Structure formats: C-alpha cells, structure tokens
C-alpha cells in the first residue's frame, strides 16, 4: 500500500481536537463534519491519497472527475472555541492494511500540529424503528470517557469497525486521548437526525459557536455525492452486501 | 506490488497526447488504440509489467507464449497532426493497488516525454438495444471538458472504473489535463461500432490523418486474442461474474 | 504488511521456552497461556501490532477501547522451574502474509532472549462427543517429538493451520526446536477441559509450580472477551464460516 | 510478499536446463520431477520460502513438521546427459503477486548458474475419458517450439495458469528460451500415466539415462503427501473449488 499526504499549508493551532468525518454507517460523521466545514469556513490544508482506495474516478458537478480522497481542514477557534482539525473524505480504505496506514498518516498529521485529542463519530445500526437516536461511546481512557458520558452517551459494548474505531485505538498507543461517539441509525442512507444527535453535544463540549439549522444542507450534499455514485439506486439488499465488501459506507 | 517499465527508446515528442487503450467494456479503447497503432505505424518504445497481472502465460499464434503486458507506442505527427503516446495491452491490473501503481508509472512515462494531456476511452454498458451509440464524457477541468463536449458527448454521471477513470483522476493531481470518452455498448464483446463512434471525433480533434475503414481489422485481432484466452466461449452470465472478479475486460 | 514490536523491557532469561497462546480452535492456547500469566504473575515486556490485524477497536470493561494486539510476557522460574516467554493476544493476523510476518517477529524476540525451544498449543476439532480429550503432537525433530510423546500425546497427521503450526515449522528453519500440542475439542467455545488437558503435562515438563484449580477464571475471562466482541451470540453455522474468513478463532 | 532463497551450495553446471516440478493439475510435473530426483540422485542445493505460501505446518512421517517450501536440486550429467536444475516443492504461491515473485527468484537462481533453457511440465484437464494422453506445448520462440513439437506435442491454445506458464513467459522477457509441455489428464489425482507421457520425451531430448520403471514410486509418494494433507479425502466437487481458491494443486 502507498498512502501519501500532500500538505498545502501548515497551520499554527492551539491544542486542536481532531474530528474524524469519513463515510460510514448512516453517514453520521460525514454529514456532521461537512457541516462544520461549511459553517466554520474551515480551510483545506492537506490531501491524503491511498492505493487502497477504490480504483475509479467519480464524476462531480458539471462533468468534472474526482478521485477518491481524504482531506484535512483546520479551524482556528474564535473566543473560547477550540481549534479543530477536520478529516473529511469520500471513502475509507478498502483493505485492513490500507485502513491501518490511513490512520497512521492521520495521526502523523495530528501529532505534528500539536493535537492530542481525537473525536470520531459514527452510526450504530439498529433494525428497529428509531424515534430519538441514543448515543453510545467508547474512549481511550477514564478522562475521555467522562467527556463522552457527560454528553449523555451510554457505554458501548462490541467492536467499532473502520477508521472510527481504529483511530481512537491506535491513537491511544501513541499517547492520544479521545472517544468514539455513535448515534443510533437505520444506516444505509445519510441520516440527518443521527448526525444532529451526535454533533450537538460535540459543539457544546468544544464550545463551537455553530448553528445546526442548516445541517440538512450537508446531508443533501452527501446524498448528491452518493447519487452521483449511483449508490442510492442500488437495492437495499445488495447495498448491504456491498457495504461489507467495499467498506464504502461501512 | 512491483510494476516496472522497461524503456527501449526515448522518443523526442512535441507536446504529445497520451491515449489509453487497455481492455475494458466492449473493448472500445483496445480496438481504437490498436487501429491507431496499425494505421499510424506507431512504434513500440516501452513495456510495463506488474506482479498484479494475472499469473499465467497466454498462447499466441503458432504456439508462442505471451505474458500479460502493457505496451507504450509513440507516433510523431506529420503536418499538423498531434504527437501521440499510445498505451496498449492485454490486461489491466487485478487489484486496486496494482491499478494505482500502473497509472502512476504511466504518468511517469508521459511526464518524462513532455505530455500533459490524457485521453482515455471506454464503453458505457447499456442493457437496451443500441442503434447509434451516444458518447459521454468526464474531464479534469473546464477546458478539457469543452474539448470533449465539442465532440458531441454528453456529461457523464456516476463512476468510471479502472484505468480509464483513474488515469484522468490521478493525472489531474499531477497537473495533467484530459478527459474520458465513453461510447454506449452492450459490452462483453469487442464492439467495433462503439470504437468507431469514440475514435472518429478523437481523430478530428487531434487532426490525425487516419481512415477508419479498416477498423474491423483491429476488432478482429482483438476477438482473436480473446478467443485464444477461451473467453468468448464462456457463457455470458459467468463472464459477467468474471468481469468483476478479474478486471480482465472490466 | 507492517508488523512492529515495541519492547518495554529486555529481561535476562536463562534458556527460556516460548509458549504460544493466541486465539485458536477451542481457545485452548489462549486459556492455558492466560492462566500461566495469572498464576505466575508473568510480566508484560513487549507488544506487537500488525496492519494485518482486523481494522477495528474492541470495547473493554467500562467503555475503554482496546486494539487488536499480541503481547509478550516473561517469567523467571523459581527453584528448578523453566524460564518462560509467553505470547498472548486477542487475534492472529488476517492474511497468510501477515501470519508469516507475525511468526518472524516472534522468532526475532525469542532469539534475542536466548530461547531455542517453542511450544505451541491448540485444539483439534472433533465432531463427535468428547469425554476425555486426547492429545496429539507434531514436532520439529526426534528429540522434541520425544518430549511431546512423553506427555502421552499421539502423533498427528494432517496440517496445523495458523500460528500454532507455522511457528514450529518456521522456527525449525531458524534452528529452534519444539512441538505443537493439540487437545481434542468441539471448538467454537472456550474449552476449559481441553485447555486443562494440554496445560497439565506442559507444567510437568517445565517443572512449573502452577495449580490448575483456577483455570476456569482464565476461561471465564476469555469468554467475556468473546462476548464483548459479540462473537458468542453469532449462530454456530455462521461462526464456522467466519472462522475460515477471519482467522479470528482459527 | 517476501520470498527468500537460502543457498546451501553453488554447483558448477554446464549449460543446465531448469525443469519445473511444482504441484499442479494431475501432479504431472510433481511426479516427474520427484522421479528425476530419485533416479538421478539429484542434490538439494537451495530452498525457497515465501510469505505467500499457506500459513500452516504439514506433518510428515513420524510426527515431524514440514513447512510449505520450494526446493532446488541439481544434477551433473554423465556422458552426454544434460546438466539439470530441478525445482520441486509442495506448493505454489497463493497470490498472483506471490507467483510473480517466486518465478523471479527462480529465474535469478537459474541465471546465476548459467542456465538459459526452461522446461515446465503440467497437466491439461480433460473431462472425457483419456486412453492415451496427448501432449500439448507452447514455447518462448520458434527454436524451443521445434524442440517441443519434435516430441510429438501439438500446439496449445488458451492460457497456462500458474508457475508452469509464468516461468516460461517471464523467462522469455529475461532472455531464457524454453517450453511448457502439458499431458492430458482428468486432474485432481496424481496421474502417473500423464507424468510418464510427459517425462519420456523429456528424457530423450536431454539424453537422460533414466528408467521410468519406478515412476509409480514417485506417484505413491506424492499421493502420501496429499493424504497427509487430508486432501484425498475431500469430495471432488469441493476440491474443484479449493483448487481455484488455494492454488494448491492449481
């Protein structure tokens, strides 16, 4: 595998928090992070490419090609807002080895910018109908767990697949603290309600001055991306299979 | 993966265009590029081998073995014809990582010869009957998109799998411009009509003085290669499965 | 693949024996080795991580994340007890290449500490009901085979998959002696009886002053780990399939 | 992948021919090469190990472990016999990349010993009943093809999977000449008749003073190895599937 990071700018940040926002169950992290990028006008400062991404081009608006990519944005907090590094992208890696490398490079970037706290978001798939999504969490240590429990999250049992789990677990090995916050979702479709449930307490914790009123805009953009992939037309059953094969929406 | 390029000759070219012609849906690119090699008497100057190619030998005419290979040809344009680099071969790589590496090496070769424009060809599979194949395109940028739209192509939505998509998308990251041009095809068989539809406007754009009268010769040669692989005897349903597994004709 | 060993302490050991205790059929090695770590208060001195491990985080007690990991413990024998290196962990590697690398690194660690004898444990799956599990063995050479036969084990025919087999076979190439000892088990569940059957003669051979009375504690802990993975809820048939795919419990 | 060759002795050979004898369809090459090793008392001079081999230990006679391995033997011809390098083993690599690396290392060994001619053997699976197996061939060039046709072989169409095909095809790229000789076989079982058919003209061509009377001994030994793998008990249908998955007997 070859995973490379191209850095356009090296921002000076004050004790930033890394928020992971790659595609996953219900696109919870994807929507939430895109919304933060929109609202905070976060700035793109690095791109990450991996030969473990799918081998295709994606067509974007107006006939332009896009490649599978992960992007890093930063935000310098105003007033008492926390500085942020945002990891956003249109894919995770297709192999476990690719995922390990992706997380390793991400931690390199975070470390270099003085970050020592990681928040990963995600969806927790539920087959039953969800009226109000509940939050679940797992953390690197007691202190970070307390941060997550303070948001009203319950302790999670089981595994957390993909970058959402791996980034916290591998980060812990390198001295990062942090937690993974999952909102209940039926999955398969961009779930704006689950994204809202997860993002709201994060904004409080980091004292981010962000309204969630326009969250639907980020969800709509996410839907459009999926549509351009032809993914929303795929029948559910097949999609389920694709999920496990392609790690595309995990 | 190990992907190596053996260079036999380093041609001096004037702002050449790279045309990709590897096996893919309907063998559109494969036929079109082979025809250009035939008609322009393009010269082989490099071979590319990858450990991500299938691990077999192919038998060619008269009992000789052939290995899976990608070849580079060049053509120095006469009069106002554009100089060309032609990528031709009997396979794509079997893994996404192999495909990324293949495209990387191809861009290295192109870059070294002063090329900054890439045209990839392909088929767009349609289940319905096709009377006159329509053309679709996606491009690296507005300018290249205009080039493709000028050919009467429509804007493509969705993904472009394999080298046809990846080469334009990854090329863009390294400063190449270019587009992917897909002709509608039922796929599965070498489709001379789709190849004709895609190649004709390319010849116009690049002012290539090439008749398409003998295009059937290249299609027939492509059919013979497939036959020697035993591929044309495989029932359609199985072939469909093989396509996704083997990336052999994508 | 990238497999790294982080060494916290370099113990001085006298001709130590390496005991392999990774998850496998019936969790025989896993239970037995955990019990030795408990009873002997063996000390953690190194951790091994591989990008061929599953890409997820595991939740441990009280909401904390754990990563897939292999750990090395040591024990300095008292009186005439043999010095030990214990390899314990919650996973094997997911690919054959990852397994080869894992075994290579393990042999590096063992070699550096002056070890030249390897004992791997495991389960031998039987479909019929097992009243008293029998022991089977395979060894690097005549001498080590005699050690194993002295325990009342019968000679094994067939293959020994995973680290249990590979470590002895690859060790032999590097001058290690040793054997693999398998106890009959229905598999799929942590099998305390099989672990007892395998561990008892090992303790005798190495003159380890260890009671097996609390072996159930290690089995219970192993069950809890599996439960936290959600694995014990998986229907048997599916688990069987997962075994071959995931090499998780081999 | 990591593929290493350990060389025990560097024999001085005079223009030796490399004969490939790894497990494949009908075990034709495996039986034939083992017979040559037996009869000519060929000497082991190198071993090749790859992390693309299966991750298991095999139990050999009397409880000893064996690892997946490829071995190199040499034979210095007497009188006008040709000098030989014999590649024998109990497996091919499990991945295409592993196969490419295996062939690359094999060619390195051959080149270093002054070899420039390769003969690979194999079976050509036929579903109908075979009374007298016919021979088929494919070669690097006209000259080598003539050698093979002189044996009464017909020209082969289609692909030659695995090391038998790849070694000739990749060898050709590095200046080796040679051919692949396939004997018709139902496959799946060590086929002494097919091995006889392929080996006889090879002995003539290389003027090897070898009786084929005891060929059944090599076939029986091959059967025993398969039996110890438990492979001969596997129902045929499943074996067919395993073949494509495991590349074990190709």
Measured between the Cα atoms of the first and last residue of chain A, the distance is 20 Å
Multimeric state: homotetramer
**Count of runs of 4 or more consecutive helical residues of chain A:** 7
Structural class of chain A: alpha/beta
What percent of residues of chain A are in strands? 25-35%
**Major β-sheet strand ordering of chain A:** 1-3-6-7-2-8-12-9-10
Biggest contact: A-B, 22 and 32 residues
User: What is the chain-wise order of helices and strands of chain A?
Assistant: EEHEEEEEHEEHEEHEHHH
Tell the overall outline of chain A. globular
Low-confidence stretches of chain A: 235-250
Helix content of chain A: 25-40%
CATH architecture of chain A: 3-Layer(aba) Sandwich
Radius of gyration of chain A: 17 Å
CATH class of chain A: Alpha Beta
CATH topology term of chain A = Rossmann fold
The tally of strands of chain A reads 12
User: Any idea what the CATH superfamily of chain A is called?
Assistant: PAC-like subunit
